[in-house]
Write a sequence for this structure.
């Protein structure tokens, strides 16, 4: 049996695949694995570009442990199964008049996979998805069911929220939700220099702001999202216009241009300038999750780094200069976002406001040299790599970037002393 992730950059050949239908079945599987010295890993939707979910032995699919398990209407808290995909979660929450406070731009991940890798959205006043976790239940390396929340083992919560799959198998997650809300989205095509110069002002005065720069052009595509009450009338763009923008331009045209650029790299600058001419300004008001997320049908590989918020402009300028100096032909846009500081030990935003710079390469293009050179720039700014996106960092140099790194390892020692949940990726980023 062969498993491959969405980005076609990681492959696993598990010796056994289990699809437990109950939490007890998960406990039993872990007990058997630990007793026989085997390894067991959970796989979600496969949207991580790293080997974090690669199962070297037993692969566990939590697809049957999905859905809403409990709703606390008074406190606006919802407990869901660890295998619940985000797209399903947002629809279930909407039925209860609730929503996630913030989201990333993809909703295919499972909730346990998304928080474990530090998935985040944008918005200087908002943390990553894991900051919305107020409790979780996991199966430890001994097969024990462990509840971690504000009342039970609370000291482990900052470690478990972004646990990299190293502490246990998350079977339940309790989320602090907010009342459902709408978003007015404003999308503009603007000169990239103007956007960079006013990035702080835009992030400070807009609920959620991000931009995409198309290499070899002077153009950026900006997205500014303004939060509105749920009762706000929803106003979509013309359906034909929306289809052209989201499906034809963002997916169809982008895919065609990437494919053409892969076959003929010299044409990439002209192709990028062509695609920017197709982009246009638009505004629309939709339910929050429908604005936060977008379909992604063009396969790619990605590396993303979090740098101190104040370093964004300098780091971004170095990446622009790097592409020009090396003569690379990069068809995929670079994405820039920002997020609030948080207290989760292995969060890329731990202890500091962060700007995120993400670079991509089309699935048929080799990202090795490009990603390695960008990574060197990010490291000069004390950048921290996204755990679910490609990077070359190891435990030796990651320890300096995370003040609570050794505290996390101490929790791992208690919850998985025999390393039942280990794989090559975790050995590299956490050590033995």
């Amino acid at each position: 049996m062969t498993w491959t992730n969405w980005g076609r950059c990681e492959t696993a050949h598990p010796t056994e695949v289990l699809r437990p239908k109950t939490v007890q079945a998960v406990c039993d599987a872990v007990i058997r694995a630990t007793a026989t010295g085997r390894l067991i890993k959970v796989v979600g939707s496969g949207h991580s570009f790293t080997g974090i979910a690669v199962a070297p032995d037993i692969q566990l699919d939590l697809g049957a442990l999905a859905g809403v398990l409990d709703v606390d209407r008074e406190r606006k808290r919802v407990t869901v199964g660890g295998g619940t995909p985000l797209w399903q979660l947002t629809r279930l929450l909407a039925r209860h008049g609730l929503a996630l406070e913030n989201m990333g731009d993809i909703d295919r991940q499972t909730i346990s996979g998304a928080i474990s890798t530090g998935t985040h959205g944008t918005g200087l006043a908002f943390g990553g998805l894991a900051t919305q976790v107020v409790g979780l239940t996991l199966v430890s390396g001994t097969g024990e069911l462990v509840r971690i929340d504000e009342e039970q083992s609370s000291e482990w919560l900052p470690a478990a929220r972004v646990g990299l799959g190293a502490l246990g198998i998350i079977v339940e997650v309790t989320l602090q939700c907010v009342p459902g809300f709408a978003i007015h989205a404003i999308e503009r095509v603007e000169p990239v220099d103007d956007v960079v110069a006013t990035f702080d002002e835009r992030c400070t005065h807009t609920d959620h702001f991000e931009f995409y720069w198309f290499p070899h052009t002077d153009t950026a595509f900006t997205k500014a999202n303004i939060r509105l009450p749920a009762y706000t009338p929803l106003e979509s763009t013309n359906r034909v216009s929306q289809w052209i923008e989201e499906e034809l331009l963002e997916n169809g045209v982008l895919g065609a241009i990437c494919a053409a650029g892969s076959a003929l790299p010299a044409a990439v600058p002209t192709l990028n300038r062509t695609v920017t001419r197709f982009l246009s300004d638009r505004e629309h008001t939709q339910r929050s999750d429908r604005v936060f997320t977008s379909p992604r049908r063009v396969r790619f590989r990605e590396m993303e780094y979090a740098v101190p918020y104040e370093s964004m402009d300098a780091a971004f300028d170095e990446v622009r200069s790097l592409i020009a100096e090396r003569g690379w032909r990069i068809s995929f846009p670079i994405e820039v976002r920002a997020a609030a500081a948080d207290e989760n030990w292995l969060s890329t935003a731990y202890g500091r406001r962060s700007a995120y710079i993400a670079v991509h390469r089309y699935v048929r293009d080799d990202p090795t040299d490009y990603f390695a050179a960008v990574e060197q720039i990010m490291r000069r700014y004390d950048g921290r790599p996204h755990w679910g996106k490609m990077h070359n960092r190891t435990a030796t140099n990651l320890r300096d970037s995370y003040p609570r790194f050794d505290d996390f390892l101490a929790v791992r020692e208690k919850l998985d002393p025999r390393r039942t949940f280990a794989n090559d990726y975790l050995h590299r980023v956490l050590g033995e």
